[in-house]
Amino acid sequence: MDFMDVSKKRVTVRKFAQVPVEDEKIQKILEAGRWSPTAVNGQPQRILVLNTLENLARVREFCSFGYDKKYVELAEECEDKSHGKLNFYYGAPLVLFVAYDKDACWTHPQSGKSSGETDATIVATHMMLEAASLDLGSVWISYFDEEKARSLLKLPENWQPVCMLYIGYPAEDFVPNTKLGCHRKPLNETCFYNAVPAGKEEI
User: Fold this and answer.
1) pTM (2 decimals)?
2) Mean pLDDT (the chain, rounded)
3) What confidence tier does 77 reach under pLDDT thresholds 50, 70, 90?
4) How far apart are the C-alpha atoms of 85 and 82, rounded to whole Å?
5) CA separation (Å) from 155 to 159, 161, 181?
6) Could you give the CA distance from residue 55 to residue 164 in angstroms, rounded to a whole number?
7) What pLDDT is stored for residue 200 in this prediction?
8) pLDDT value at position 203?
9) Residue 65 φ then ψ, to 5°
10) pLDDT at 10 exceeding the cut of 50
11) Could you report the per-residue pLDDT of 146-164, keeping only the tens digit for each?
């Protein structure tokens, strides 16, 4: 499959079939992350694979928040009507918890900034695209209670959480969310050749 076809095939899925992701597909997704570029090939990413009922229940726990109507208006799937809360776990059978080891990152010699978050983000992106190529749906999650996640998952102190990928087969009645839109801006609004055009200095 052409790369652009994979890119366009990837859509945000918030409703998953209750079917486990096959081990061979999980391995392919993890391999895609393993071959991702990282600064000076430091490979500081740390991926915690969560696919047991016990661990998925933990994910649900640290993704629960107080009710906020604006999120429900954007994605009805997050409304936990029985508890009057928001819950940003959508029943995915596989969760990849993406972090980086703060002791394994390259540090920019001028700014002192760590490469960890960028490295982990690149890895997560590659894994998400590989999932799409395998006919799996996914959603990128960064809204979770980090301290609760640290406690429930017993993360080492030097692991810095970045995001989670929920992965699985889309439910039969899954429909892409049109409220958030699926269009892309034309290139001339986001890409500029050789110089910032007049009036775009704030970008």
Assistant:
1) 0.90
2) 92
3) confident
4) 8
5) 7, 9, 35
6) 13
7) 57
8) 46
9) -140, 170
10) yes
11) 999 999 999 999 999 999 9
End-to-end alpha-carbon separation of the chain, Å?
Answer: 34
CA torsion sign for 171, 34, 43, 156 is positive
Q: Which residues, listed in sequence order, are joined to residue 69 by a DSSP beta bridge?
A: none
Contact yes or no for 171/17 (Cβ under 8 A): yes
Q: Which residues make beta-bridge pairs with 79?
A: 86
User: For 54-76, how does the pLDDT look when each residue is reduced to its tens digit (9 = 90+)?
Assistant: 999 999 999 999 998 988 887 88
Q: What is the DSSP string of the chain?
A: --HHHHHHH--B---B-S-PPPHHHHHHHHHHHHTS--GGG---EEEEEE-SHHHHHHHHHHTEEE--HHHHHH-GGGEETTTTEEE-----SEEEEEEEETTS--B-TTT--BSHHHHHHHHHHHHHHHHHHTT-EEEEE--S-HHHHHHHHT--TTEEEEEEEEEEPBPTT----SSS------GGGT--SSSPPTT-TT-
Whole-angstrom distance, CA of residue 161 vs CA of residue 150:
8
Full strand arrangement of the beta sheet holding 79-80: 64-66, 85-87, 79-80
